[in-house]
Amino acid sequence: MNATATITVVLDGTPRELPEGTTLAVLVAELGHAPGAVGTAVNGRFVARAQRDEHRLASGDAVLFFQAIVGG
């Protein structure tokens, strides 16, 4: 039996299991969001779009997606 290791992150307040090694960019894509459609933060720290491919999620991370608010 070849089990894939998983991690549990908290996504917008809800626990979610992911394969170990999942990047923030992969999570954004798997949830059907265009990369520029959402902002992202991990453990309360903003993660820029350009850094999502390098940001590997770890068990216990709190991930937040948010919409950019534009206006004046």
Short description:
The chain has one helix spanning 24-30; strands at 6-11, 14-19, 39-42, 45-47, 62-66. The chain is mainly beta.
Please, could you describe this protein's structure?
By secondary structure, the protein is mainly β. It is built from 1 helix and 5 strands, in the order ββαβββ. Strands 2-1-5-3-4 form a 5-stranded mixed β-sheet, with no helix packed on it. It is globular.
What Rg, in angstroms, do the CA atoms define? 13 Å
Can you write the helix and strand succession as a string?
A: EEHEEE
Number of strands: 5
Report the mean per-residue pLDDT as an integer. Answer: 92
What's the helix count? 1
The largest sheet is: 5 strands, mixed
Structural topology:
Layout lengths: L5 E6 L2 E6 L4 H7 L8 E4 L2 E3 L14 E5 L6
Parallel strand pairs: 1-5
Antiparallel strand pairs: 1-2, 3-4, 3-5
Defining key terms:
1 helix, mainly beta, single chain, five-stranded mixed sheet, 72 residues
